[in-house]
From TrEMBL:
A UniProt-annotated Pfam family: DUF1996
Protein's name in the database: DUF1996 domain-containing protein
InterPro entries, sorted: DUF1996
DUF1996 domain location: 29-284
């Protein structure tokens, strides 16, 4: 995608945008299902190699020896459900990710954004902080305009063609459900996290209650202001995930269901797309994220951080213990809830 910050300058004090290559594709979820191996469904994970079935509640940056993210200081973990193509013969194939714009050379993965709403008002996350955005069991629309937490954009021409609106802001091109037509240039999906924190708890039982959206409701990533509720007075960096799903190999109408229904399914068993969700575990070294927010780091331009070339970050991986690729029979597939 064309960077929204290029089109909308001056809306944020700091605006990091960088790619994180794939770390692993695995049935693990240490936030929602700590200790379970396997977890209920498959996730795609990026970030530091301390990721495992149980993420330590201390400083994970000290436990990680490498990262798949663009900045060496970032050992956080970011993950989402995977996307699969359900063929007419009943088998499932994983839809691969492709490198986003300006992330050439990355091994798929996720583009991550961190935005500060204004100079010197943002408090970076603390070691042990984690949160969840979206609802894995949601199967009906909450309204794109009101929800403003996750969306999809179908590229009908080429990989970076189409609308220049910020994510989840285009009423024509953006939907809160999976596209119902072939997308010649692939599908972009976005997950937007809350902007406000209670200032005390690093987590909560549902991994959501310690954070909140501004009182005016969920915030567009291009307009990161807004008044925080009194219960959550601390502004934190607004995090957004962006995934480019390479659906181009699955656009043959002869492979789609005979009734014309859309054949894509998230790994949590969701054929609607409303259940798109993302998990976040903070893992930046020392005060590196706070410095980046306070000094106005922009996109990948940040003198206080160390950049990693794709050939280095692509080598960072963790072992995989479950089959996630190839043709998968639904009865034996690791896709769905157990």
């Amino acid at each position: 995608m064309k960077s929204l910050f290029l089109a909308l300058p001056g809306l944020a004090h700091a605006a990091l945008r960088f790619g994180c290559s794939t770390l692993t594709i695995e049935r693990l979820d240490p936030v929602v299902e700590p200790g379970n191996n396997p977890s209920a469904h498959v996730h795609q994970v990026v970030g530091g190699n301390a990721f495992n079935a149980t993420v330590d509640t201390s400083d994970i940056s000290a436990l990680s020896s490498c990262t798949t993210c663009h900045f060496q200081e970032d050992h956080s973990n970011y993950w989402t459900a995977n996307l699969y193509f359900r063929a007419r013969n009943g088998t499932y194939k994983r839809v691969p990710q492709m490198a986003n714009e300006f992330n050439t050379g990355d091994n798929g993965g996720i583009t991550v954004y961190y935005t500060s709403p204004a100079p010197n008002v943002t408090t970076a996350f603390k070691p042990g902080f984690r949160m969840l955005a979206g609802d894995a069991v949601l199967r009906k629309s909450e309204g794109l305009g009101r929800n403003m937490q996750q969306c999809y954009r179908c590229y009908t021409k080429d990989k970076f063609g189409g609308s220049m609106y910020s994510p989840c802001m285009d009423p024509v091109y953006d939907t809160d459900h999976l596209p119902k037509q072939p997308c010649a240039g692939g599908i972009r999906s976005n997950i937007i996290f809350p902007l406000c924190w209670d200032g005390v708890n690093l987590d909560s039982p549902n991994h959501k209650d310690h954070v909140a959206h501004p009182v005016t409701g969920p915030t567009s990533f291009s307009v990161v202001g807004g008044e925080c509720p009194k219960s959550h007075p601390v502004k934190i960096p607004q995090v957004m995930y962006e995934v480019m799903w390479d659906t181009r190999q699955f656009n043959n109408p002869e492979d789609w269901p005979e009734d014309g229904s859309q054949p894509l399914v998230l790994s949590n068993g969701d054929t609607t797309g409303y259940g798109q969700h993302g998990d976040y575990v903070f893992g930046w070294e020392k005060d590196s994220l706070q410095v980046a927010m306070d000094t106005g780091c922009y996109l990948r331009n940040c003198s206080s951080l160390t950049e990693l070339p794709p050939k280095v970050k692509n080598q960072c991986q963790v072992p995989v213990s479950a089959t996630v690729d190839g043709d998968l029979d639904e009865c034996k597939s690791p896709l769905f809830y157990s």
